Amino acid sequence: GAESTTRRASDVDRPHGFWTTALCHAGSVTEIRWVVAAAVVDDLDRPSLLLAARRTEPEWAAGLWELPGGGVEPGEEHEMALHRELAEELGIHVDLGQELTAGVAEDQDGWPIRPGYRLRVWWAQVREGDPAAIEDHDAIAWLAHGTWHELDWLPSNAPVVQELQRRSRAAEIR
């Protein structure tokens, strides 16, 4: 069978230097749909609490916990999408820290979710607002360090949360 490769492709039709990742399979190109999320913690330097949000939809995800965030709209910068999603879903404005990289091959960005979808995650701290379950969630919870992995996370978020816990102990946040 044909080998697949991942490459970063520049898309000149999109404003602000927006880029996508294209997957090439035997001559066909599939554009990746990006999802962004925030690891909202109480303190970027010494996190002891992590914010989790419980999904209400879609049906398959209802009742599962996630790092808050959502889909990137066409032409939207990833960081701006994250700020928009956090304001819409939780009513908060945040300061972003470092991106949590997946530690995969350098030519791939983000965490795999499912075929055609990848997730980018940033450390974040609330600058303004009190987190509330406004849209797509029915509960939020601040989790104490050491218990972050104990919730029933979305399958795509579980390895991210595990890595957040590991890196927060190593103080690799800023």
Provide structural commentary.
With 174 residues, this protein is mostly beta strands. The protein has helices spanning 78-90, 158-169, and strands at residues 5-10, 19-25, 28-31, 33-41, 49-55, 65-66, 69-71, 93-100, 111-114, 117-128, 137-144. The strands form three sheets. Strands 4, 7, 8, 9 and 10 form a five-stranded mixed beta sheet that branches.
Summarize the entry for a quick read.
The chain is mainly β and 174 residues long.
Q: Top keywords for this entry?
A:
14% helix, 11 strands, three-stranded antiparallel β-sheet, 2 helices, disordered N terminus, globular, 174 residues, mainly beta, five-stranded mixed β-sheet
Number of strands: 11
Radius of gyration: 16 Å
How do the helices and strands follow one another from N- to C-terminus? Answer: EEEEEEEHEEEEH
Q: How many H/I helical runs?
A: 2
- Give the averaged pLDDT, no decimals: 82
Largest beta sheet, briefly?
5 strands, mixed
The low-confidence runs, each spanning 5 or more residues with pLDDT under 50, are 1-27
Percent in helix: 10-25%
SS-based structural class?
mainly beta
**End-to-end CA span:** 43 Å
Shape: globular
Tell me the fraction of residues in β-strands, as a range: 35-45%
List the SSEs and their pairings:
Layout: E1 5-10, E2 19-25, E3 28-31, E4 33-41, E5 49-55, E6 65-66, E7 69-71, H1 78-90, E8 93-100, E9 111-114, E10 117-128, E11 137-144, H2 158-169
Parallel strand pairs: 4-10
Antiparallel strand pairs: 1-2, 2-3, 4-7, 5-6, 5-11, 8-10, 9-10
